[in-house]
Specification:
The chain has 202 residues and is mainly beta. It is built from two helices and ten strands; from the N terminus they run βββαβββαββββ. It is globular, with a radius of gyration of 16 Å.
């Protein structure tokens, strides 16, 4: 069964939550993604309806019309995307404070970084690189309400107050509650790169 069901949160897929570890990963098997400063969302399209779930399982389907419209317009009967809802300024930097007010809800879009389901088929068992490649193709013609979360080649980059955190994931791994996530987190307060690692867990 693809979706976990409960009385409070029907249809919810609980996202992988990264946890800090001792040092950043290295090697060609890793891809590195920008951790945008926003709200984690699972976006699900099914039977002509789009639902948006937060990390804690709240149904925010009425919050972000730009995301819902874009996901609804995807050329597929059903899809489930894992991503980050963000509001960006003119420089393309995510501003988390704008998400605190519902006044900006119509400007929020989704950076999608993983594909969990497509046309009724569970994609979570497939390797990361296959899921991301399929997701990129799916979003190639999507409108601006949902965008593909690209991955830089290296987690080591200049750090400033505007530098986002970096999430690193191993290729060849399924989407699961495992050690597939290992981010290198930029400590913006001290302007230095802190070694870290994260794992997906329940």
């Amino acid at each position: 069964m693809l979706f976990r069901h409960s009385k409070k949160r029907p249809g919810l897929i609980e996202p992988c939550i990264p946890t800090v570890a001792s040092r950043p990963p290295a090697g060609p098997q890793w891809v590195h993604e920008i951790k945008h400063d926003g709200y984690r969302l699972i976006a699900r399209k099914q039977d002509g309806r789009v639902r948006l779930f937060t990390r804690r399982g709240y149904d925010w389907s009425d919050h972000y019309p730009r995301i819902s419209t874009a996901v609804a317009a995807l050329r597929t009967a059903s899809a489930t995307l894992d991503g980050e809802a963000v509001w960006c300024d003119d420089d393309g930097l995510a501003v988390f404070e704008k998400l605190h007010s519902r006044a900006y809800d119509d400007q929020v879009f989704l950076y999608a970084f993983d594909l969990l389901e497509l046309d009724g088929e569970d994609w979570r068992p497939r390797p990361l690189e296959a899921r991301k490649a399929k997701l990129e193709r799916l979003l190639a013609r999507a409108n601006a309400g949902v965008r593909f979360g690209e991955h830089p080649r290296s987690p080591r980059r200049p750090v400033s107050k505007a530098t986002p955190a970096i999430l690193s994931r191993a290729t060849g791994h399924p989407w699961s509650y495992s050690l597939a996530w290992r981010p290198a987190i930029a400590d913006l307060l001290h302007h230095r790169l802190l070694p870290s690692q994260r794992s997906c867990r329940r």
